[in-house]
Write a structure and sequence with these properties.
139 residues, mainly alpha, Arc Repressor Mutant, subunit A, 8 helices, 64% helix
Length: 139
């Protein structure tokens, strides 16, 4: 079992598909640009990568999209890039602490981004990202 499988399994509480954790669901919504009115829409995968570029941490996001080793991001860096307001909104919605949200997203987002960009490029079509995420959940 790889690192992603462990994180995915941990975030899903050891369950497959139907029991996906709320934090994992939000991370997936962020990548597919489906904030569902929750106020945490980041513009999809391209928007998240762009936010990292503009925040001076583009090298991190580039490592997740690229085919090499993924560089880690810490909770504080992620909170700075996504914005503390978004982290607070997600935390309030899920009934979690802001630290749990930023820490959890810092673990899962790089892995999800890596898995939906196997060719080292951001897919131009959101349905490609949705299909890749759907396949991951069916594991």
């Amino acid at each position: 079992m790889g690192l992603f499988d462990g994180i995915l399994g941990g975030l899903m509480g050891g369950q497959q598909q139907a029991g996906a954790s709320p934090l994992l669901q939000i991370a997936m919504q962020m990548l597919t640009n489906k904030g569902n009115g929750g106020g945490f829409d980041m513009g999809g995968l391209a928007g998240i990568v762009d936010a990292f570029q503009k925040g001076g941490l583009g090298h991190l996001a580039d490592s997740w999209v690229g085919t090499g080793q993924n560089l880690p991001v810490n909770a504080d860096q992620l909170s700075e890039i996504l914005g503390s307001d978004k982290i607070r909104q997600i935390a309030n919605q899920l009934g979690l602490s802001q630290g749990d949200v930023s820490g959890g997203l810092a673990q899962i987002l790089p892995q999800l981004i890596d898995k939906v960009t196997p060719n080292g490029q951001i897919p131009g079509n959101h349905s490609v990202i949705e299909d890749a995420l759907g396949m991951l959940l069916k594991r």
